[in-house]
Amino acid sequence: MRYLPNSPAEREKMLAAIGAASIDGLFAVIPAEYRLDRDLDLPRAHAESEIIDCFRAAGAKNSTDYASFLGAGAYRHYRPVIIDSLIQRGEFLTSYTPYQAEISQGTLQAIFEFQTMIAELTAMDVANASMYDGSTGASEAVMMATRATGRHQAVVAATVHPEYREVLATYTKFRSLPTTLAGYDRETGRIDLAALDAAVTQETAAVLVQSPNFFGVIEDIPAIAAIAHAKGALLVVSIAEAISLGVVRPPVEADIVSLEAQSFGVALSYGGPFCGVIAAKEQFLRQMPGRLVGQTTDSSGYRGFVLTLATREQHIRRERATSNICTNQALVALMATIFLSVYGKEGIRELAEHNLAKAAYAAQKLGSQPGAKLLFTGAPRFHEFVLQTEESPAQWSQRLLDQKIVGGIDLSRWYPELSNATLWCATEVVTREQIDTAAGALAARPAGA
Comparing 62-66, 264-268, 390-394, 407-411, which segment has the lowest mean pLDDT? Predict the structure, then answer.
């Protein structure tokens, strides 16, 4: 009765109302082979104290003392303790959406500040705070481009995060929006400009690229923009690593920028929630999904904040809605806002330079080991790099794990042509000693291997 509050008498009345003689009669339309005719195979009921002990034992298996060289769209950065202290205040933690502006001024101002800082970082005119993560942001940006241009084709760089591309494929599956994949240059790791030029046509609505791309390489955004704009397509730039904007020139030539802001003080949390955002040129403002907060003055002349634009079905007519994105990620965006406020402009630059230096040292150290070499050295990169080894990743990864180190990600899962190639990431939380230990473990090949 605790979880199924309907009494037997109430269930009988419900069955009678729908014309079923019994529960079995209700489910008679389901073939017998798909019906469960026994009790569920579940352990006995546990007391609350026993359940807590069970979860504590399971949680103890999640060791946090491993050094990690994983990246690929989810980055480990230091989170200032002030972030959790502020977001756990009741007025922030318990609020969902600022529907009633007059009593949500704090939340609305936080979103407004977030939008402002993101617009400055990306060199765009306006930004929202309403995407689930970088993958949905990139897909929604492509949808924006189709609405803005009236075209229904897209070209996607093979250097865009493979899982972002999978999300886009889900978006486009029933939208009659074919996509063409543009390959990459095997020397530089950048998109192949000749292949891109051939793929973009007068029917192309959007060219989607990522920079730094999935290999950690900085794309030539001005050259890509020239190709897209020459044929009337919009350029969408996805940024999976927000910290890169501390040193990497923002994609000013882009029409739309999709950003994953997880690196701005959002914990990895075993996969989410993250914080996506779309920024764009002002002319595309009304095609943006999600919500935008604006600044105004009230009847007494005081500054106030309002929900200026909300382009989803709940707020406007369905035929005019731009997206079914339903949350504004306000709490997660607040984490990023606090992070950016704590670091400031100079702090973000110094942090990015720290990441750049750590990755340069790691790439040099690991790439100089016997049987290892760096790929895609013909273009600048940020804090990720591709390492190819004579041994398969399965052979050397256990040696690293024995040293409490998690090595790079095997790229052959998405790029079969890159055999024994792994993607490594070094952020500010990786120490020089850990890099040296990883290099030593990588070099310690068994005799005859």
Answer: 62-66
CA of residue 108 relative to chain centroid, distance: 23
Strands (E) located in 261-382: 276-280, 291-297, 303-310, 372-375
pLDDT at 68 > cutoff 60 = yes
Q: What does DSSP assign to residue 60?
A: T
What is the C-alpha to C-alpha distance for residues 162 and 191, in angstroms, rounded to an integer? 14
Max Cα–Cα distance, the chain, nearest Å:
82
Q: Which two tokens stand for residue 288?
A: 């943006």
The residue with tokens 């501390």 is 246
Which one, of 380, 361, 377, 109, lies nearest residue 244 by Cα? 380
Helix, strand or coil for residue 67? Answer: strand
Q: Residue 14: is its pLDDT beyond 80?
A: yes
β-pairing, 276-280 vs 291-297, is unpaired
pLDDT at position 96, please?
64
Let me know if residue 56 belongs to a domain. Answer: no
- Residue 285 falls inside a structural domain: yes
Distance between CA atoms of residues 324 and 314, nearest Å: 9
What whole-number distance in Å separates Cα of residue 431 and Cα of residue 358? 8
Residues 3 and 89 grouped into a single domain: no
Residue 273: Cβ within 10 Å count: 15
Closest CA to 109 of 306, 257, 277, 268: 306
Whether residues 14 and 127 fall in one domain: no
Note down the domain range covering 132: 82-340
Same domain, 241 and 282: yes
Residues 238 and 94 in one domain: yes
What residues form DSSP beta bridges with 64? none
C-alpha closest to that of 233 among 124, 176, 156, 323: 156
